[in-house]
Every structure is written in C-alpha cells, then in structure tokens.
Automatic annotation (TrEMBL):
Highest taxon in the source lineage: Bacteria
Protein name: Probable membrane transporter protein
Keyword annotations: Cell membrane, Membrane, Transmembrane, Transmembrane helix, Transport
A cellular-component GO term for this protein: plasma membrane
Family per similarity comment: Belongs to the 4-toluene sulfonate uptake permease (TSUP) (TC 2.A.102) family.
Transmembrane parts of this sequence: 7-25, 37-64, 76-96, 102-120, 186-206, 218-239, 246-264
Any single Pfam family the record assigns to this protein: TauE
Record's bilayer topology term: Multi-pass membrane protein
Predominant location category: membrane
Origin species: Promicromonospora thailandica
Coiled-coil spans in chain: none
InterPro entries: TM_pro_TauE-like, TSUP
Subcellular location: Cell membrane
Length: 265
C-alpha cells in the first residue's frame, strides 16, 4: 500500500488532535486512545492511518514505560501474551485479504463495540462500586481464576490483538482484561504501557510487510509528532489528579459514536 498521503490542512489538524489524544492516553488517560484512533481514521484512510500512527504509538509507549514501568504486573502480562499473539495474526490476515472498505467497517465495529461495552462496564462499576481503577487491587483477584474466567480473559486478549492490529484501538479490551484481573490504577497504567510497547513493536514487521509503514507514512508521522509530545506531557501532569468517571463515560460515548460513523461511512 504505497499510495501517496497528501498533507492537507485536514490531515495536519485532525492528525495533530488525534496524536494529542494518543499521547494523553499513553501517560494518563487510557480511554482516549481509541478516540484518537477514530479521529486519525477519519482524516486518513483507516488502513493507512494505522501505518502513520504506529511509529508515534511506539514513541508514546517508550515514554509511558519509563514513567510507569515499575508498576507492571508481570504475571498478568505473561498470561495475556498468547491470546494477544493470536489476535495479531487474525488482524494481520484481515488487513492482508480484506478490501479497504471492509477494513474501515471493521475499525468502526471494533470502536463501537469497545466504546459501548466499556461504557456498560463503567456504569455497572458505578452501581456496584467494585473493581474500578481508582481502588486498591482486589484481593480476590489473586485467587486462581476459574476455567470460565480464563476463557473470558483469553477472548479479551485476542480482541485486543485484533483491534490494535487493524485500528490501533486495543485500549478498551485491554483495560477490561486488567479490570477483570483486579489490577489497581497504578498497576493498570504500568501494565498497559509495557503491553502496548511489546505489541506495537511486534506489529512493525507485519505493518511493514503490508506496506503500511513506509517512507511516505513516516513523513506524515514526523509532521504529527509535536501533537503526541504535547499529549504525553499533559497526560503525565494530570495522571493522578483526574479520576473523572463522568469524563471517562463521555470519552467512551464519543468513541462509540466515532465507530458508528466509520461503520456507516
């Protein structure tokens, strides 16, 4: 996929907003990641948007790991990797053989389902006041999970792999996975940071093989880099000052709306 990417005003402005949101997601507000993916996919063809975003996401991952790496929950991360690997392979196959318009609808469906699903989860958490990222780790989460729970986590891991490969939108299923595992807010930030660094680096050869990451896409990535840097700095500054369940719910609603727009476009 070596189609030239025109740096129109819409691409520069919309892409900068998207990378700002991605930076915020990396260092402090994870729900914004899927919204950033939706924004960049609205100003660039969704498949090409994935190639432009990937190098920027890796830069953000490196910064996030340096900030939160001490809080990584290694056992949870190790358990997650096999199902994510399966999801990456499925996502690669979809990108290779599905027509671009089908890929766009897949991106939309993933964002819509992720946004609505995580919104339902947050509303349930507000009612039950259980297992949210603002509370300490759930002691019961350290008990061995049941077979049904292991299957649910594997499905979420595979979903995270597919969605991050196709749409750079693996944040919501990843967050839900970690919440099911009873991870605290600090643990979530650290584990998400290392998880996405590992996954995004693993995606590079796939994306290069598909022609998504190229000299042309890197040129656009470089233009959008300042937005990412600003987002990373703001996210780091506000990471532990904004819990904002209402804000998080609004972000998820907007993510679902962006997914619906791509789905019917």
């Amino acid at each position: 996929m070596d189609t030239a990417l025109d740096l129109t005003a819409a691409v520069v402005v919309g892409g900068s907003i998207a990378t700002l949101l991605m930076g915020l997601a990396k260092t402090g507000l994870p729900p914004l990641g899927a919204l950033g993916a939706a924004v960049i996919a609205s100003v660039l063809p969704p498949v090409q948007a994935a190639g432009v975003a990937l190098p920027l996401l890796i830069v953000g991952d490196l910064v996030a790991v340096s900030a939160y790496g001490r809080d990584v929950r290694w056992p949870v991360l190790r358990a997650l990797l096999p199902s994510v690997t399966l999801g990456l392979v499925v996502g690669f196959a979809a990108l290779r053989w599905a027509p671009p318009e089908v890929s766009a609808r897949v991106v939309g469906a993933l964002l819509l389902l992720a946004g609505l699903g995580d919104l339902v989860r947050q509303l349930a958490a507000l009612r039950g006041r259980r297992r949210t990222t603002d509370h300490p780790e759930n002691p019961g989460a350290h008990a061995p999970p049941s077979a049904r729970e292991r299957l649910a986590r594997a499905a979420l891991g595979a979903t995270a792999g597919v969605s991050t490969m196709i749409a750079n939108a693996g944040g919501p299923p990843m967050s839900l996975y970690l919440l099911r595992a009873g991870i605290s807010r600090a643990g979530l930030l650290g584990t998400v940071a290392l998880f996405f660094l590992t996954v995004n680096v693993a995606k590079l050869p796939f994306s290069a093989g598909l022609g998504l990451v190229s000299a042309e896409s890197l040129r656009v990535s470089l233009v959008l880099l300042p937005g990412l840097v600003v987002g990373l700095l703001i996210g780091r500054a506000v990471a532990h000052r904004i819990s904002g369940p209402v804000f998080s719910a609004a972000v998820l609603v907007l993510t679902a709306a962006a997914g619906a727009r791509l789905l019917v476009a």
